[in-house]
Task: inverse folding
């Protein structure tokens, strides 16, 4: 597939990622650096300032902040238990007692949605972090040392990328055998992280390849600075911007993948509340009780939208193409 | 060009071997095997050993893979242990359903995205642009199954029974059974919602990508030149700007195939369609080794062939790109 990669490499603006949003990184419109007065600020301060001026980023950040609060304080906010069934109150319509109604087991939908945010956010964030912690060092080693380490690592990444991502994630989940609770959540996290490692490895390798040719790296080497220190102190900070943007947008994608796996019955298992699973379970009753399949879907949508808006704003603020 | 295509086609072979081998090994590393499901309550160790020997499941995994490959070379995709049906036959029955779904969903995506992106880029920062980009932002945040549920709520529940919520009517000529009649109208009614559900996300993504690259292209000098020499707006936009803006877009869409396959699985499950997606997920969950291999093979082939087609589209969009 060497030519394949070269043909793509010939397209300058493409960062090959697997997901909806990251794929777009390449096509971001130019954002010019602003007036001279700002040049004195650190790039980080500039980024933060531009971020604060962006309405979309602020809306996204607000959604994410509210969701995090809901997930953290789910036990306090939720009016009822998300898993206690009540056979006398099945399929209640939304009312004052049950603001979002109840499902076929008489469980309060509002409480299930509040608690479901934990799974979505936990899997979304931790799978991306895990992929990051594995992918970034791999990409740095591949890019910095080149040679045999590079080809070994990148061939392994290509192997994962050669798979349609859902095929791999589904088979991994079948191998892990989906279960409920914390262990079940960790299995989903692991499966999603594995399929997403190559995105970060490739992204970082690309940045490192150009950074390691810079004079300041050569200067470090001439001074006798050891490689791990150069990598951590000088190379990594210079490829942070694209990593941050890809991570934020990657969380949105991971949340969709988690919801999809749950929807297929391969995510965290009941009784642990999960939006994808709830949606799937309630679709069966869509003709008689249309509202209950609507709410978990809206929850997933709002969460993904929040991370997408925030990630979009971040990208404009940090514009990785200027690196 | 021809040698390039032949070389690329040859390079596809190792990729497909690799994917099918990894799937083969992974499936067999899952505890339990289809023999347990096959024998059900009548399970006993003696019979199980006999059945395993009959299907060659007692041999080392790599030997089994070799046998599978050998048969594949003769056009035999194996026989499902659970259903006893030849895998190739099942795949061929289900392939047209999924192909129709994917082709129509891409058509939906293009039909929405190209006009939306052109309007957005040409009227940048007007209300038309803002609405196009906002709707696209919402579109990329809706997972396929939720889009499907919304459509179900509108067309099957709201407008009671306007469109069927599940099942399938085959296109005339693709009908697999002797006693079933294909119908174009019935088929359209069944495919409409799934295709839109799968197409919306693609449309939104495509709009965002295409708008961004259109914005870059219309600021280039050759577009100014085209306008300056008196070309009317239509050829300037469609021939000069759009064709060039499509190149990076097409690349990303090619990388999206993996997601499209996942989307097809989800949408087919939601609408209970007898396509490859439901075939694959059922086979994986039931651990029907032969069917999973068939599914992995057909997806791997589709995946690499589409990526090849993407690379070949470049030569059409930009004749300067040549493959030798």
Result:
């Amino acid at each position: 597939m060497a030519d394949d990669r070269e043909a793509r490499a010939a397209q300058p603006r493409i960062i090959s990622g697997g997901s909806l949003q990251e794929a777009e990184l390449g096509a971001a419109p130019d954002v010019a650096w602003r007036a001279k007065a700002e040049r004195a600020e650190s790039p980080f301060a500039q980024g933060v300032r531009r971020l604060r001026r962006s309405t979309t980023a602020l809306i996204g950040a607000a959604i994410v902040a509210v969701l995090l609060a809901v997930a953290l304080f789910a036990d306090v906010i939720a009016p009822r238990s998300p898993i206690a069934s009540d056979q006398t109150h099945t399929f209640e319509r939304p009312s004052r007692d049950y603001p979002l109604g109840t499902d076929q087991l008489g469980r309060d939908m509002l409480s299930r949605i509040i608690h479901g945010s934990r799974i979505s956010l936990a899997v979304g964030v931790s799978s991306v972090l895990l992929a990051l912690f594995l992918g970034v060092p791999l990409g740095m080693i591949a890019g910095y040392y080149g040679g045999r380490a590079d080809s070994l690592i990148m061939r392994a990444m290509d192997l994962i990328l050669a798979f349609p991502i859902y095929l791999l994630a589904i088979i991994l989940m079948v191998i892990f055998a989906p279960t409920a609770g914390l262990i079940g959540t960790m299995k989903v996290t692991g499966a999603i992280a594995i399929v997403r490692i190559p995105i970060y490895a490739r992204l970082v390798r690309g940045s490192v390849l150009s950074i390691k040719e810079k004079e300041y790296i050569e200067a470090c080497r001439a001074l006798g600075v050891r490689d791990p220190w150069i990598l951590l102190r000088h190379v990594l900070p210079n490829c942070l911007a694209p990593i941050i943007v890809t991570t934020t947008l990657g969380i949105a994608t991971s949340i969709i993948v988690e919801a999809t796996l749950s929807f297929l019955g391969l995510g965290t298992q009941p009784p642990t509340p999960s939006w994808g699973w709830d949606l799937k379970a309630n679709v069966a009753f869509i003709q008689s009780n249309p509202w209950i399949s609507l709410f978990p879907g809206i929850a997933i949508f709002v969460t993904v939208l929040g991370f997408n808006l925030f990630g979009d704003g971040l990208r404009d603020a940090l514009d990785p193409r200027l690196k | 060009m021809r040698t390039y295509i032949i070389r690329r086609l040859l390079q596809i072979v190792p990729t497909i071997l690799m994917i099918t081998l990894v799937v083969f090994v992974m499936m067999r590393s899952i505890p339990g095997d289809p023999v347990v499901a096959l024998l059900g309550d009548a399970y006993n160790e003696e019979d199980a050993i006999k059945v395993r020997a009959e299907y060659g499941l007692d041999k080392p995994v790599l030997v089994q893979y070799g046998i599978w490959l050998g048969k594949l070379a003769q056009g035999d995709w194996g026989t499902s242990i659970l259903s006893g049906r030849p895998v190739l036959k099942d795949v061929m029955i289900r392939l047209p359903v999924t192909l129709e779904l994917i082709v129509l969903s891409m058509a939906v995506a293009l039909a929405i995205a190209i006009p939306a992106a052109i309007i957005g880029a040409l009227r940048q920062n007007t209300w038309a642009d803002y609405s196009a980009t906002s709707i696209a932002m919402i579109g990329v945040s809706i997972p396929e199954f939720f889009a499907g549920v919304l459509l179900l709520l509108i067309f099957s529940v709201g407008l009671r029974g306007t469109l069927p919520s599940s099942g399938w009517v085959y296109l005339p000529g693709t009908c697999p059974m002797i006693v079933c009649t294909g119908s174009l109208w019935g088929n359209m009614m069944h495919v409409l919602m799934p295709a839109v559900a799968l197409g919306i996300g693609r449309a939104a993504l495509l709009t965002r990508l295409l708008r961004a690259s259109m914005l870059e292209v219309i600021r280039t000098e050759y577009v100014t030149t085209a306008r300056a020499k008196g070309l009317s707006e239509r050829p300037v936009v469609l021939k000069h700007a759009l064709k060039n803006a499509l190149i990076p877009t097409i690349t990303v869409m090619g990388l999206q195939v993996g997601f499209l396959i996942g989307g097809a699985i989800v949408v087919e499950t939601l609408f209970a369609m007898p396509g490859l997606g439901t075939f694959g997920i059922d086979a994986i969950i039931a651990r029907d080794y032969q069917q999973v291999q068939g599914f992995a093979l057909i997806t791997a082939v589709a995946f690499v062939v589409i990526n090849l087609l993407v690379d070949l589209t470049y030569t059409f969009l930009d004749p300067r790109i040549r493959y030798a």
Notes: Chain B has a mean pLDDT of 85.
